[in-house]
Amino acid sequence: xxxxxxxxxxxxxxxxxxxxxxVTAYWAPDRSVESLSVRWASSPSEFIAVAGMQVHLRDEGxxxxxxxxxxLHGTSSSLHTWEGWTQVLKGQKRIIRFDMPAFGLTGPDPxxxxxxxxxxxxxxxxxxxxxxxxxxxxxxxxGGYIAWATALEHPERVSRLILVDxxxxxxxxxxxxxxxxxxxxxxxxxxxxxxxxxSIVENSxxxxxxxxxxxxxxLVDRYYDLATRVGNRQALVQRFNQTQPGPLADRVVxxxxxxxxxxxxxxxxxxxxxxxxxxxxxAGSQLVVFPELGHVPQEEGPLQTVAVVKTFxxxxx
Length: 317
Hints:
The protein is α/β, with parallel strands linked by helices. It has one domain: Rossmann fold (3-Layer(aba) Sandwich). Helix content is 42%, strand content 14%. The protein has helices at residues 3-26, 33-40, 83-89, 116-129, 142-153, 178-183, 186-189, 198-207, 217-227, 232-242, 272-281, 297-300, 302-313, and strands spanning 46-50, 53-60, 69-72, 95-98, 135-140, 158-164, 259-264, 286-290. Strand 7 (259-264), helix 11 and strand 8 (286-290) form a beta-alpha-beta unit. Helix 4 (116-129) crosses helix 5. The radius of gyration is 21 Å and the shape is globular.
């Protein structure tokens, strides 16, 4: 065998061996809902059948509340991101939160449809199932996009709107979580099936916090574990391919309900200018900026952010 060919074969062997070692080290098989529920679906979690899915949901607070607050999480997150707000508000307000399709314990949409229209239909279907006709709605990131799109399509049902670092307008990020960059890259995205280094998850969570030192091992556990729910990694890739900001942006000015906009001053994924644009285009809206918080201020600084929510909702201390 000629020397150049031997070198090429040796190099190829080394590359294959390295890939094999990496795959073995970071192998993360899909996990069942049953196994994950032990830790992440304790009481008051429940599962309800909606649109061919078993939706992971928590419904807390006074059931006689005529306008519950619905909380929608963002990409790769779950209903747990609202735990701080819920603990403060549930004594006086009915709080409904659930894992959105493609994420958490709810998992993939059976039709693989992650359009904004499909998400709006899902939210209203969940609320119809709970016999909730009128509600206030809050959403973070993708959840914010879904929240204001729901308000556009069903203004007669939405009494108040809360946008928390919401997406929906076209934007340019100055920093994107590593897991998102991988999911958006076709070849790398395919690797999300069998392989998931915990370090990628930890890096991605730290990326959306204003103060990365607040990212605890338990927090990383939650994001990591729920990412391995059967089908979620493939669904994440589909979600990025299908749900793009922009299509409804010219209709934001149609929103007329009282609106609170909360933004983290250290949000490098969706810049503050987006919050200012929502504030300009939604008549009478209020913008509150938390300079030291990042892209998920409701999770990073729950007590700070929920205080302005209480005022907005007219909840006394």
